Amino acid sequence: MPSFPRFVSCLAGLAAGAAFAAGPTLPATPDSWRAAARGDIEAAVQVTRENHPGAHDPTNPSFLARIEDARRHGLALAARVEDAAGYVAAVEAFNARIGDGHAGMRVMIDEAALPPPRWPGFVSAWRGDALYVYASRPGEPPVGSKLLGCDGRPGEQLIRENVFAFGGRVEEAGQWWTEAPRLFVDTHNPFVALPQRCRFEGQGKAFEHTLAWRPFDAEARRWRQESESLDVHPVGMSEPRPKLVWVAMPTFHPNEAERSAYRAMTRDAAENRARWLALDAVVIDLRKNGGGNSAWSHDFARALWGRERVDRALADFSARSEVWWRASPANTDYVDLIVQVLARQGQPGQAAWAREQAAGMRAALARGEPYYVQKKDASASVAAAPDATPPFTRPVYVVVPGDCASSCLDALDAFTRFPNTTLIGAPSSADSTYMEVRRHPLASKLARVMVPNKMYVNRGRANGQFYPAAIEVRDLVWSSETLLETVERDLAQRRAHAQALSNTDR
C-alpha cells in the first residue's frame, strides 16, 4: 500500500494555513478573553462531534461522554479567564480531560504575546519514580536531590494537579518522563498554586528549600534540553567500539542528507551481512525522534532481520486491523485537497490511492454512513516466502525516549517482533487509534481543532498501549556514554550467564 497516511501528516496544515497567515488579533479585555475561551471550546466540541472518528466509534462508546466532560470543565475555567495565559490554561485543561493527543485544540497564540515563563533556578528530570534535580544554580538544591513534595503536598500529587491537569496523558508512563518536569516551569497558569517551599532528599537526609522564581534565561533553556537527551547523534551509523554498531534515528522526517544517511546504513546492513552477523550488538537510538514516515525504520528492519521475516511479522501483527475513514463533508473535502496537492507534486501513485479513499468517503456520505472502510491490499494477505538469508540473532538494544509516539511507535512495532530486541531508556508514550490529523481553524484564529481523518479497528497495538522499557535508564544524564555503559553491563551479564550455563553442562 502506498504511504499516503504519512503524506496526510506532512500536509495537514495546508487547508488551514492561509487562514492563519496574518496571525490572530488578540482580545483586549478580560471579558473578551473569557468570551474567546468559551466560544472556542464550544466551537471545538462542535467540530469534534461532526468530524472526529471517535464520535461514532463502536469500540469507544465513552468518547462523546469524555468530550462533554471536557467541555463542562473547560467552560468552568473559561469563566475565570482574564488574559492570554488564562486562555491557554483553560484550553489545555479541556484537552487534558479528553486525554488524546489527536483530539482537542492547539493554541496558535505567539509566544511573544504570553508572559515570559519563570523557573526557580534549577531544572528537574523524571527518572522512573520521582523528580530529581538535574542542574541548579548556586544556593539551589544540589544536583541529584529527589523531590519529596511542596507546601504540604506529595510530589506525585503536585504533578497530577499542576501538570497533568493541564496537559499530557497521566496514564502513559512515558509522559511522566517528558511532562513531569514542567512542575518547575511557571507559565502563569491562574488555576494552579505555584510551589513555594519544597522538601528534597539528598545525600541521605531530607531538607527544605524556599523557591525563588525568576525569568527563564538561556541557561535554563539549555539545561531543559540537555535533561531530555544529551549529545544526540545525527542520522547515521557509527561504531563506538569494535563489533558494536550504533544506529541513530533521531527523526523520521529526514531532509535530503538524512535520507541519504538512512539509505546508506540500510544498504550496509543488507550488503555486509557477514560483518553484521558477527557483531556483539546493535544499538538503535530513537532519542529526539518525533515521528514522520515509518518506512525508514521498517526498511532498516528488513535489511537487519530479513525482508520476508519482517513483512511476515508485521502482517501477522496487523492481520485483523482495518482502517475506517470518517466520512464527514469536511474530512472528505480535505482528502480531495490532498489528492490535488499530491498530483501537483508529481506523485501520481500516491494521488491515485488518495483519490480512491476520497471516492469511498463520498460514497459513504451518500449512503448516510459515518465511515468508509478502506479496502484491504490483496497482496498483504499473501504469505511471505521463506527468507533465504541467515537470521539475525545478535542482541539489538533500542533506546526509547519517553515521548516516542506515532511513527516512533511504528518502529517499535517492527523491532519488537523479534526476541533479540531489548528496549532500554524510558517507557514510550502511546497513540490512540485515531490518526492522520488535519488542523481545523477556528474563527478566532486563536486555536485550531485537531481532527483525525481515520481510525484503526483491531490494530495490533491497542488504543493507549505503550511499550515499557526492559531496562530503564534512570541516570540523570542521558548521554550516549551512559546508554553505552548500560548496554555493556547487560552484555557482560549475558556473557556471564552463558558461561555459567556452559560450566553447568560440563
From TrEMBL:
Residues 1-21 form the signal peptide. Keywords: Signal. InterPro entries: ClpP/crotonase-like_dom_sf, Tail-specific_protease. Residues 248-440 form the Tail specific protease domain. The keyword Hydrolase does not apply. This is S41 family peptidase. It comes from Massilia suwonensis. SUPFAM superfamilies: ClpP/crotonase. It comes from the Bacteria.
